[in-house]
Amino acid sequence: MDELTTYSAGELARGYREKKFSAVEVTEAYLKKIDKENSALNIYLEAFSDAVASAKKADELFQTSPESTHPLTGVPIATKDNILIKGKTASAASKILENHTATYDATVVERLKGANAVFLGRTNMDEFAMGSSTENSAFGPTKHPIDPTRSPGGSSGGSAASVAAHLAPIALGTDTGGSVRQPASICGVYGFKPTYGGISRYGLVAMGSSLDQLGVLARKVDDIETVFDTVRGLDKNDSTTLPARPAPNTHKRIGVPRSFVKDAQPDAVAEFERALNTMASQGYDIVDIDLPTAPHALAAYYIIMPAEVSTNLARYDGMRYGLHVEGESLLQDYTLSRTKGFGAETRRRVVLGTHVLSSGYADAYYKRAIALRAALVKEFDAVFENVSFVATPTAPGPAFKLGEKLDPLSLYLEDIFTVSANLTGDPALSVPYGTVEKDGVLLPVGIQFMSPKNSEKALFAIARDLMNENKN
Q1: Closest by Cα among 336, 335, 337 to 318
Q2: N or C end of the chain: which has fewer CB within 10 A?
Q3: Which residue among the candidates 80, 88, 405, 453 is catalytic per the annotation?
Q4: Does residue 302 sit within a domain?
């Protein structure tokens, strides 16, 4: 049965069509493995008891009308705990929403249900997606599948770890500043963030609305592409969504901002250069580029994002839904509910965001960050006139020890290579290429490719070239 949990989504789809195994058998294999291994890793906050019923429905489709099945029919999928599934808890790993039940499906969930995918359960995360280690969850940290003393990254650490540990073939996450790509790199799986507006945000628990995007994690790039093709496109419930109009890839040229890349750890840089050599052998031109604004993107991000956090989280006041703590006055109700309901990192970002938006400080901080963001967009647009891709390491290094980055600033630096794609709205993909040794353990590292808006297909193609994977 364990063999069934090693297959990619594409391999599962072929197995179903060829009647080698059933969706029920695959789902039960995953649930059994989750039951056996999850207590040690804390990857899932909940495995769904109705997953087998969904799998039975998929098997019936294969029996009665196989021509109507979808490539994701019967394929198990894990979902980050900030993606709404009707009738399921959606806590965003926070005490303030610990008992909140979703009353509707997120658009991505609705479209995957239309494909008759099977939802396995909800995965752990940093509270409200605020963090890069999954240590900020109100329900305890997730542990790295290779070395449980280390972090799987974050904030989609549970989703990344579920795929790496073979507790799901595909997982959904959200990416506000790298929260899909950074844990994907650390766990050794693919992690994808589309063009801003490429996938609907309707039904995601909002963190930073101009930055948030739903992302996908998998062990094969084909699986990422299949999910993207299934859930992408316009949504009447999200005015920021874009029509599915793929942009062409004009040339095989990769730009490398070497003065920026040097900020990664030396062994991660060595693996990055090895990946570039592989791309050169595949016929790609590797050229040096300048991105003078990119090193400052992290500072701008940590002003813009908390500002949007403070606005989005204002709704959690203990009055309408979520945790309510009774005080002696209305103001004390608010104070006690939010103090008890929010963890330390969430409170830190709400306070910071309120500060940078306040009178006398908005001009000094927020407006300057917005101006830098606009400059960054122009900078990347100009670069993409001459190259098809910008390559960097995904993260500064491999998985770090749990508790190693208690200083918030050191943890924020984990996002140094990933935040630019969120600020510019360009698509990006982390490819699991390479390992480095730490304390006698081989740990994964990834390479990140960014490309112009709507050119996701080019990202999938370059990943196949690097990893020598043929398209199914």
Answers
A1: 337
A2: N
A3: 80
A4: no
